[in-house]
Amino acid sequence: MSLPxxxxxxPTRTGFECDPAFVxxxxxxxxxxxxxxxxxxxxxxxxxxxxxxxxxxxxxxxPVINALIKALTxxxxxxxxxxxxxxxxxxxxxxxxxxxxxxHVGWKGALQTIADAVKLLMKEDIIPTRADRILFIxxxxxxFMPTLLTFMxxxxxxxxxxxxxxxxxLFVLAVTTNISLGTLAAGWGANNKYSLLxxxxxxxxxxxxxxxxxxxxxxxVTLEGTMSLTEIVKxxxxxxxxxxxxxxxxxxxxxxxxxxxAELNRTxxxxxxxxxxxxxxxxxxxxxxxxxxxxxxxxxxxxxTAGLAVTLFFGGWLGxxxxxxxxxxxxxxxxxxxxxxxxxxVPRLRVxxxxxFCWKFLVPASVVVFCATAVWVMxxxx
Amino acid sequence: xxxxxxxxxxxxxSDMTINLGPQHPSTHGVLRLMVALDGEYVKSCRPVVGYLxxxxxxxMAARPYRQSVPFTDRLDYCASLNSNLAISQAIxxxxxxxxxxxxxxxxxxxxxxxxxxxxxxxxxTYAADIGATTAFLYAFRERERLLDLLEAYTGARLTCxxxxxxxxxSDMPEGYAQAVCAFLDGFLKELDAYDTLLTGNPIFRVRxxxxxxxxxxxxxxxxxxxxxLRGSGVNxxxxxxxxxxxxxxxxxxxxxxxxxDCLARxxxxxxxxxxxxxxxxxxxREMPEGEHWGKQPKVFRPAAGEAYSRTESPRGELxxxxxxxxxxxxxxxxxxxxxxxxxxxxPELVRGVKVADMIAILGSLDTVxxxxxx
Amino acid sequence: xxxxxxxxxDALRKALGDGLRSCALDGGxxxxxxxxxxxxxxxxxxxxxxxxxxDYPGDLFAWDTGERFVVVYRLWSTTLSQTALLRVELERDGxxxxxxxxxxxxxxxxxxxxxxxxxxxxxxxxDAGDPTRMRILLPKxxxxxxxxxxxVPVFSGDPLHGPQETN
Lengths: 382, 374, 167
Known about the structure:
The complex is a heterotrimer. Chain B has 14 helices and eight strands. By secondary structure, chain B is of the alpha+beta class. Chain B has one domain: Cytochrome-c3 Hydrogenase, chain B (Orthogonal Bundle). A three-stranded antiparallel β-sheet of chain B has the order 1-2-3. Chain B has a three-stranded antiparallel β-sheet with strand order 6-7-8. In chain B, α3 (80-95) packs antiparallel against α4 (101-130), α4 (101-130) packs antiparallel against α5 (133-154) and α11 packs parallel to α13. The two termini of chain B are 27 Å apart. Chain C starts with a helix and ends in a 33-residue tail after the last helix. By secondary structure, chain C is an alpha/beta fold. In chain C, the strands form two sheets. Chain C has a five-stranded mixed β-sheet with strand order 1-2-5-4-3, covered by helices on one side. The longest helix of chain C is centred in the N-terminal third of the chain and has 14 residues, at 3-16. The chains are: A mainly alpha, B alpha+beta, C alpha/beta.
């Protein structure tokens, strides 16, 4: 009797003996899609628009139409880039976990997210009988809208910013806090105990981590003397903050990143949707397009937080040779990938550890960094 | 039951009764926990079992002794060979059958392979309980390779039904020893990598260290066994204290931790995988030539009496008690599964802890509901 | 068997009198049979007496011989590595046995199972007297005790949509 053949060949590739070509290919594909999109967009002004140009100027100068065009652009960008981000996340997770990720729809599963979106659109819209209908319906939009609004002030380049708000950072802080309103509404409105626990956790978490995050951002404001995001980037012409002011900006960046993970509800701070405890947390009862909106908001916030980190610490759109928006895209995707890397590596904290870490470590640490920045500015200024 | 009414809409009390399961991502099967929560704290917990009750004991008692082996596959479906061994031993004892030496080694080898597979499930699902999804998939990848090996020998991946009264169903296929050794080489390397991934992770440690402490006295009074008992510092391993089959002739260490917390139970299981690999290598090296199957009567009618076996399954003491009245069918087949006992400790362990800790404690007990409900 | 064990068994004989039906050592296993009303005292003695120290609740189960129920407690000593099989025989009518959950908390669910499958009342069990809480493997509203020899399944209604809720 001889050994019968195994049912399938033993897998040859494992997570630890990673194939650099595979990784590089996936990463390059992701960057290429983004670069192509941005390149097409930056080529648009060079086309012979001469005939329509006066018309466009006429329309664009009208404040209402101008605002509408900008709003539409931001919305379309958010929706489209999330499709790419979800694909990247799934491919990245697949690579980390020694599997392939989506492979069947489109090239290497590139169209998988679109297929999923279509599926979610076609799904039955379920609202639990005992739910608070108004809150339940409003919650996905309450979560998604603030994220959408933040993209208004995010500078993709000096010109590519929907509204160059002089108090950009203040606006960001004010708007992102409202996300917790949506999660709380979802948690309460669904009338589900898991949702309620998840909503309560999300609210406590977002509000707590807002404080060290704000203080870390204020360190940058102290350093640059401005709250405008474009100004902050322009000030980094002669060296990114994280390099030029490394002693204070590296700790500030680390605090910002940890708080960012908490704000985004990603592991190790994914307590609001802790699968093994709360099934799905605050969006347990959601399905179809309402669920998709939570997902959309989550990934858009992901990109925004990464973009904010790039703006504050990594010189935003600045970079040699390539056009500015491409630099911004590359840097942001790199930070997003860092978020994903952390997410798929670490376990989850417990609720008291999460709160203790914020109040006992991050808040004091951020205040120390803030004071140190003030001293640094005084010393460097003199 | 008034306690089962939803509390959210009423909101008259700060307590909330929540049903974890029977369908819930963390319960590893059809277990339902009725938990009273005060915010994030667990006030009381009542496990509800029986969703998987098939009356296996009764079914085994309704047919000739040797036909009950396949039923034991369905007890602890993560380690079916260990359950096969328990019933086979009980039947051999009540009928006075001898097992050839080669078969003893084969049995030990198969049981230890299944122990690794079972502990890999624990490793993966426990990581998922704590929130680390990636380790889960790594563990299942290794388990796939092991199940492929089991399939190549026994023809089945989960319900092997291969250890039978009197020996094992057939000898190893050609080249099997090399295949197993090749697997073990790779597996031990991977296991070290998992250790660096999960065991050393500070978040994993703060989630498990000092959580769900079981004192040695409590562990003994509750009848805990296996890694749960050894995680509490009680050095009892039935492969040592009441050795059977080829275990007396193999060298291995019994991993022991004294902390009694979730981390201790986890570490004991991880170390047991290494020891199992050691035992398998010894079995392959020292296995004598010979029969895999002892002489057996055509009709098996043991004299009236009782016999029982105690074996160390991956989860703890799995013992089977047989009562014979001299006919072809047993009067009673009793299965004492470790998961059943461990689950009965849960209400006491989780009183006053947080929800997340409750999941961590439940995961560290590593219960299999097929064995609880029978 | 060691000298303290002999002394402890002598003390048990004296304390129980007629309650101890038999006591024998069989290949390293101590086999005892006691009267139902002497069970709790015997169990306590087995756990605490020097030389016995049966501190580990191995198993507890019953079977139906057709005439009566036999309940067996399999005990083990972690310090002395010895086994005891404590046996009680119960008449079918109004079968009841004292709970040993206060001695070995690990017997709690085993006792619930004995009630669930055989209908043997467990006197003094934390959930005693409330069948919905005693039932463990079967639904809480199950009729009858299916491991009894005289059990006849009762199907009240559609078996597919019958009682679904367990206790």
